[in-house]
Design a protein that fits this description.
The complex is a heterotrimer of chains A (120), B (163) and C (722).
Chain A (H helix, E strand, L loop, with lengths): L2 E5 L3 H13 L3 E5 L2 H10 L4 E5 L7 H9 L9 E5 L4 H10 L3 E4 L4 H11 L2
Parallel strand pairs in A: 1-2, 1-3, 3-4, 4-5
Helix pairs in contact in A: 1-5, 2-3
Chain B lengths: L6 H7 L2 E8 L2 E6 L3 E6 L13 E7 L2 E7 H4 L12 E6 L4 E6 L1 E8 L4 E2 L13 E7 L2 E6 L1 H6 L12
Parallel strand pairs in B: 2-11, 5-7
Antiparallel strand pairs in B: 1-2, 1-8, 3-6, 4-5, 6-7, 9-10, 10-11
Chain C lengths: L20 H20 L8 H20 L3 H18 L7 H22 L10 H12 L13 H11 L8 E7 L6 H12 L5 E5 L7 E7 L3 H8 L8 E5 L9 H18 L21 E3 L47 H25 L8 H24 L1 E3 L1 H4 L2 H12 L3 E6 L4 E3 H22 L3 H6 L6 E10 L2 E8 L6 H10 L10 H6 L22 H10 L3 E7 L3 E9 L4 E9 L2 E6 L3 E6 L5 E4 L3 E6 L2 E7 H4 L13 E7 L2 E7 L1 E9 L13 E6 L5 E5 L1 H9 L1
């Protein structure tokens, strides 16, 4: 059973992602921003971190960087959800240590398709 | 002969369950779905300056419910209160209200065929609340739209009625 | 209940997103409200990053959700807002009043668009064209630096940019778009509709296409390719869209074009934000490889090496013992208190149940009084504990419904700003005590009366700037709204430093309307005259949202909440209106009194004192009115027996207890038979199943299960005035 940490400050997006993933058999833990997500990541391990980019307190890339600083999160796949798919964004994402990105808006089918590439 | 005509009558013409009760010499039937419960009568808290048929309000498990004595409203000869006095608690769209009647008979199902329209019936109750007549063996039931009856101006329950 | 038009993605609609609509509507409303608040408090000269970022994020969040759930009109408008805000937060342009105005207006229109969707999408949606136009103009800035947003790869820019410039109109280019293969041609139709729904997106024309499952369009647009693909994604996935830029190169460049190149670039940049950077667009003529909308970084942790191959989870399982949470050293804001959303009906039900518990506990307490304490010591001790626990529980539960006054106050800055502007007045708005808490039920009911009072102060209180200066006052008037707890009540004040009220004018108007007034009336009573029905003078009446609400309705609303209104005024200096409300609608400290066989309840907060009287202490004057002397005052007497036509059984024992109550600034003495006790009672509504009864404000259930009516002290006091 795979655990996914879904991070987004928008409740409607969080619910949608959560619903889609649990429907496909994944276990989902929700977090409202980077700080919340980081704390939750301390409590248990995850098979994937799915995070929005634009959030208050600590954004997606910031969370990625923080996670990568710690040995136990060095290899967890982190996907950043973003409305920007520019080169700049990609560079920043790579530099922060993200595994990949997913452009918003996306539909549930695409989300599952991408996740399947990263988790069993 | 099945009733035809107004949609409302057609609705009532379908087989339904009715709670039947007596007021003076007449027997009435109302939609069982509007009935919440049947209780004995306890003296309610009086409300000053209310019409005499509004006996007051009582406590129904935390909700304040008015009691209307239909026997007084429709000038029935007898209206005493004793251990056999019965209150039908109605759960209507706009309110919960209790009505005092002479007695409650039974709950019965009226097949559609037994329903007749009764435009000219002579009854103690407001004629426009009557939707039809039901006949069952030797009983004749006056079928009422209890929502309409209780919402009528003369019932003095509505808050837009002048005080 | 939103309109069924939208569903996410070009996917086959396996997923029903409509279940998330309600959450999105609430969330978007909050974001738009927050954005408005932040815009209003934005310091134009010294706007800092946090403020600008915060406002940007609000627009961004609404846009993201609107796009995801298919509300393209909202997505389109908020996208424009976002572009402007992005430029602002990057300090490429300076915020100014016009920008704040257009953003506020756009937020309003966004709200309307969302409300329309929430109601089922009926009716004509408000037009957004003018707004979009204005936003674009402002985004171009007033000669502010329009340097490219991001340091582009130099070679790329120099070769690409000039070729992207020659366009038929500012920033526009012509694209040829192939859509397909499609199983359902309706998706392609839907793309055409996008161009109809979203103003400023561009124009679309269908072209002939020889493949049956494909569609070809010609599009003229200044929107970036990436954004177009984003928008198309509602209906078709990116892999089904191929876009080719076929803008003709203009070899003849107008002189004006050269001058405008910077402006054009800036304009295009705003169109491109925040989606993509200009350099993402390849040179014209290159068919765009459809981007899949996601990607992986080679060699990144967990990235699939072969996208189609199975990739085992890359995460190493952490040791089973839980590591202690590392306290973050980073200077992050204090963790906000965790909150959860609960439906109001659940809270109300909880409150009802606790109310029932209070009644049951009171019944037990009452019945146990008859027991001899010696025999049932443990029982009595247990009941005492129960009493304490019930009170604590009740307090906790009531506090769930308490929300801060800031919720009420928040609507005023915007309203006053608009109103003052319309009237040509200068007004400062000050709030105090925003964190004072109030029961949610009260909040909803106090908002309208308060709005009226605040508007009144602005409309009739604060003078025009010239008049103020002539009077030696500062040009800008101040309206203060404050809230504070006082005993078991909350006191809300609306104060202004305007012209105040004229005693003479009010007395004159009162006489004209046939009200009984005297020149000796104390000021406090004169001010209360403006609440008399039909009093509304030209100086006092104001229209709240066109409903013709007057001060008398304000008074009535407040009285209906068991509250009181007091006015103080000094002509030339200003006016103060104080509204006092009980902290909660549902629970009250009551004093029960007996008349005949009946029990009535008085709000303890209205009771001043009680005493025994002899019959001869009561004097009858005039038309049967009765007065009683209390120390130095003569007070009207109200015989409850008469008010409520209470049948008397024993004429031998006359009523001989007076209870002095105070309401609406006056005192009367109620004549009753007995003082029965004091207790906390749950206030029940009479009107839900019955109707409003005169002189009665509600009902409660006594310890013995019987219903007692709660007296409306205001009504009783008013009775005695006639």
């Amino acid at each position: 059973m795979a655990f996914i940490l879904a991070v987004d400050d928008s409740p409607s997006m969080r619910k949608m992602v959560s619903f889609t993933l649990t429907g496909a058999g994944y276990q989902v833990v929700e977090a409202v921003d980077g700080v919340d997500a980081y704390e939750k990541a301390q409590m248990q391990s995850f098979d994937l971190v799915l995070t929005d980019q634009n959030m208050p307190r600590l954004d997606g890339l910031g969370l990625t960087r923080k996670l990568r600083e710690h040995p136990q999160f060095k290899t967890v796949p982190i996907l950043v959800l973003t409305t920007e798919s520019s080169d700049l964004m990609k560079q920043a994402g790579r530099a922060a240590g993200a595994t990949g990105w997913l452009v918003k808006p996306f539909d549930p089918a695409r989300l599952l398709e991408v996740i399947k590439k990263v988790i069993k | 002969m099945t009733a035809m005509g107004q949609t409302q009558d057609q609705v009532f013409a379908n087989e339904r369950e009715y709670l039947t009760f007596r007021l003076d010499r007449e027997e009435f039937g109302i939609d069982i779905l509007k009935v919440q419960e049947i209780r004995g009568y306890e003296p309610p808290t009086r409300i000053a300056n209310a019409p005499n048929f509004i006996k007051g309000v009582f406590n129904l498990r935390g909700t304040i419910v008015p009691i209307v004595d239909l026997r007084l409203k429709f000038d029935c000869p007898k209206s005493d209160y004793d251990s056999s006095t019965v209150v039908i608690v109605l759960n209507l769209s706009r309110r919960i209200v209790g009505i005092v009647v002479d007695s409650v008979s039974d709950v019965l199902t009226l097949p559609a065929d037994n329903f007749k329209v009764a435009p000219d019936i002579d009854t103690i109750i407001d004629r426009d609340a009557v939707v039809g007549l039901g006949s069952l063996r030797d009983r004749m039931l006056i079928l009422l739209d209890i929502e309409k009856l209780m919402a009528g101006q003369s019932m003095a329950l509505a808050s837009d009625a002048t005080v | 209940m939103s309109d069924a038009q939208q569903h996410g993605g070009g996917a086959e609609g396996d997923f029903d997103l409509t279940q998330f609509y309600q959450i999105f509507f609430e969330e978007a409303a909050e974001n738009l409200d927050l954005m408005e608040q932040m815009l209003l408090s934005l310091h134009l000269e010294t706007a800092d990053d946090e403020e600008l970022n915060g406002i940007f994020r609000c627009a961004h969040s609404v846009k993201g959700g609107a796009a995801t759930f298919g509300f393209t009109d909202v997505a389109g408008l908020t996208h424009q807002m976002e572009s402007l805000l992005d430029r602002l937060r990057r300090h490429e342009i300076q915020p100014n009043l016009a920008m704040v105005d257009v953003l506020l207006q756009s937020a309003d229109v966004s709200r309307s668009l969302l409300a329309r969707h929430q109601a089922g999408g009926i009716g004509e949606p408000p037009s957004t064209e003018a707004l979009v136009q204005r936003i674009s103009e402002l985004a171009l800035g007033e000669g502010q630096s329009v340097a490219p947003i991001v340091a582009p790869s130099a070679a790329f820019e120099s070769t690409v940019q000039p070729q992207l410039q020659p366009v038929a109109a500012e920033g526009e280019r012509t694209l040829e778009i192939m859509v397909g293969p499609l199983k359902d041609m309706a998706h392609a139709e839907a793309i055409r509709e996008l161009f109809r729904d979203i103003p400023g997106l561009g124009t679309i024309k269908a072209l002939a296409c020889d493949q049956a499952d494909m569609r070809k369009f010609s599009v003229v647009s200044s929107t970036s390719t990436d954004e177009l693909l984003d928008l198309f994604e509602f209906h078709v996935s990116r892999s089904q869209v191929a876009i080719q830029d076929v803008t003709k190169n203009l070899t003849v460049v107008q002189p004006a074009l050269a001058v405008r190149a910077d402006a054009v670039e800036a304009f295009r940049a705003t169109q491109a934000l925040p989606g993509t950077m200009a350099q993402d667009d390849p040179p014209p003529g290159t068919p765009l490889a459809p981007s899949p909308g996601f990607g992986f970084f080679d060699g990144a942790p967990g990235a699939p090496t072969n996208p189609s191959a199975y990739v085992p989870p890359a995460v190493e399982k952490v040791a089973t013992q839980v590591k202690p949470v590392e306290k973050s050293n980073a200077p992050l804001a204090q963790v906000e208190a965790a909150t959860i959303r609960v439906s109001i009906s659940k809270v109300d039900q909880l409150i009802n149940l606790v109310g029932e518990l209070v009644i049951t506990q009171a019944m037990l307490a009452q019945n146990s009084r008859a027991l001899e304490s010696g025999q049932f010591q443990k029982l009595m001790a247990g009941l005492a504990d129960l009493d304490r626990n019930t009170r604590d529980l009740q307090e906790s539960v009531m506090s769930i419904r308490m929300i801060p006054m800031s919720v009420v106050f928040s609507r005023f800055p915007r309203m006053l700003r608009d109103l003052a502007f319309k009237l040509g007045k200068k007004v400062d708005f000050v709030t105090m005590g925003e964190s004072t808490e109030l029961d949610k039920g009260l909040v909803e009911k106090i908002t309208d009366p308060l709005t009226h009072l605040v508007r009144n102060s602005c409309d009739h209180g604060v003078e025009m700037p010239e008049e103020r200066i002539r009077a030696g006052k500062p040009e800008t008037g101040t309206i203060t709204l404050s809230a504070a707890h006082q005993g078991g009540s909350i006191v809300i004040e609306v104060r202004d430093d305007g012209r105040g009220m004229s005693r003479e004018k009010i007395l004159k108007k009162a006489r004209e309307r046939g009200l009984d007034v005297s020149d000796q009336m104390p000021d406090a009573e004169v001010w209360q005259l403006i609440f008399a029905p039909g009093f509304s003078t030209a100086e006092v009446v104001t229209d709240v949202s066109g409903r013709g609400v007057g001060m008398d309705v304000v008074k009535r609303n407040i009285t209906a909440l068991n509250g009181t209104v007091e006015i103080d005024s000094a002509e030339g200096y200003g006016m103060r209106v104080s509204v006092r409300l009980p902290l909660t609608l549902a629970i009250m400290d009551g004093m029960s009194v007996g008349v005949g066989k009946e029990v009535y309840m008085l709000p303890l907060s209205s009771v001043i004192e009680s005493f025994q009287v002899k019959a001869d202490a009561i004097n009858t004057v005039g038309h049967g009115a009765q007065l009683v002397k209390v120390r130095d005052e003569y007070m009207p007497v109200v015989e409850l027996e008469r008010v409520f036509q209470i049948p008397r059984t024993d004429r031998d024992r006359p009523s001989d207890i007076m209870v002095v109550i105070e309401a609406e600034g006056s005192r009367v003495a109620l004549l009753v038979d007995d003082l029965l006790g004091q207790q906390q009672v749950v206030v029940k509504n009479l009107e839900s199943n019955y109707r409003k009864i005169p002189n009665v404000s509600g009902a409660t259930i006594l310890g013995d299960g019987k219903v007692a009516l709660i007296l409306d002290t205001g009504a009783l006091v008013r009775r005695s005035r006639h």
